[in-house]
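Justification of computing resources. Each target in the renewal requires a structure prediction run like the one illustrated here; the chain below, 121 residues long, is used simply to show the kind of job we budget for.
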Amino acid sequence: MIAFCTRCWTEIDDRIKECPACGANQASDLRTYDEKIVDALRHPLPQARARICWLIGENSIRGAVPRLMEIAESDPDIYVQKAAVEALGAIADPRSDRFLRSMSRGQNRLLAVAASKSLRT
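Resulting structure tokens:
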């Protein structure tokens, strides 16, 4: 079966213990849960990135705020950008609020509305 390397997201056979592209040992990844989730935002599939944004918001992973802001501004998929905006709204962090206020005044209507809805009153 096909799987993705937990470090570089290269497609690999799920029976392989070490990624042929980056050498990461798939069985002994010692990163914390939060570190793995933030790294997962580099996943090649937009649906996966959007789902990961949601998961980060649900778990209020503050360490992901800078990366979510980058994604909200520059991910090639508009729905991933929207998911990042919504995740930022779910995380109680002053950086998120400032960023969302700025996004709510942006030119992209979908993102501006999402940012407005995500702002806490």
